[in-house]
Write a structure and sequence with these properties.
This protein is α/β, with parallel strands linked by helices. The protein is about 45% helix and about 15% strand.
Length: about 290
């Protein structure tokens, strides 16, 4: 560590040893999607001392991003998210090595960048696309971070390459390997209507839910929840990278709800896990019927 870097992370050294901080410094993180959770995680990783990034996004900042996305200001509206975020990282640490990919990548390209990385954060708006990236991480034995905020609810966990569990187990998703098929399922009207739980568990208004089902409105999100669950995810990732032990590593995960923040486990039956399990069974039934 040079003097400039050491000064910037000096307070970390009351928690991390110098060797652990070097592990953090030298970890190359690949973030696919630099919107809400991606932008917050990137800045938190940079402020914790990560110095190597690959950032991918093809979108620009718009006014609806002002309520939650790091780097979105009136002064940056209309600018590419990935470029703004890269500048913020370099402003935190001028020595940071940031690769900027201001375009949508195909899975073959993503595979190449996963192989070059040490840790991956799939944070695309297209959740089916992110699930495909999690699958690639498992194939190429790379640890990955999952963060999902919805309304006043959110979950986060680190998925080690040797885990027997996957992102599908948390979300009750069927074992569909083809991206297009999973995307079609998630956009299916029957499947979308099954999200009525959003109005109760996630505290969405019924009017917003109705418009969401009609594909007239996006997911409802609020800044404190998005920033909180993203920050917890980065903390668990840093603990994993530094070898401090990780309490939110599948099958365990953190869940924020409207009334609590809890560490939970997929191997301990609960209302949430039962609901997700049943949704997975229902999805498989629908898929099998469609194939016939």
């Amino acid at each position: 560590m040079n003097n400039r870097y050491r000064a910037g992370i000096s307070r970390n050294l009351g928690i991390l040893s110098e060797q652990q901080q070097l592990l953090v410094k030298n970890t190359k993180i690949f973030i696919i999607g630099c919107g809400g959770i991606g932008s917050i995680a990137a800045e938190a990783f940079a402020r914790t001392g990560v110095e190597k990034f690959i950032l991918c996004d093809f979108d620009i900042f718009e006014e609806s991003n002002l309520n939650r996305q790091a780097g979105c200001f009136e002064s940056t509206l209309g600018q590419p998210k990935v470029e703004v975020l890269a500048d913020r990282i370099r402003d935190i640490n001028s020595q940071a090595d940031v690769t900027v990919l201001n375009r949508k990548l195909e899975f073959e390209e993503i595979k190449k960048f996963i192989q070059e990385s040490d840790f991956v954060f799939p944070a695309a708006d297209d959740f089916a696309f992110s699930v495909g990236i999690f699958d690639l991480c498992k194939i190429h034995r790379k640890p990955a971070l999952m963060v999902v905020p919805i309304g006043l609810w959110g979950v986060t966990t680190v998925i080690p390459p040797d885990s027997h569990f996957s992102v599908r187990h948390i979300h009750g998703l069927p074992k569909i390997s083809k991206y297009e098929d999973l995307r079609d399922l998630l956009e299916n009207d029957i499947y979308r209507k099954g999200r009525l739980v959003f109005t109760k568990k996630f505290k969405w208004s019924h009017s917003w839910y109705d418009d969401f089902i009609a594909k007239q409105k996006p997911l409802a999100q609020i800044c404190p929840l998005v920033w909180s669950i993203s920050s917890i995810g980065v903390l668990e990732s840093i603990k994993y990278i530094a070898g401090l032990g990780c309490s939110a590593k599948l099958p365990r995960y953190y869940q924020i709800s409207a009334s609590s923040i809890k560490k939970k486990s997929l191997i301990i039956p609960s209302f949430s896990s039962s609901f997700l399990f049943m949704r997975g069974i229902y999805s498989n039934i629908k898929i099998n019927r469609r194939k016939k």
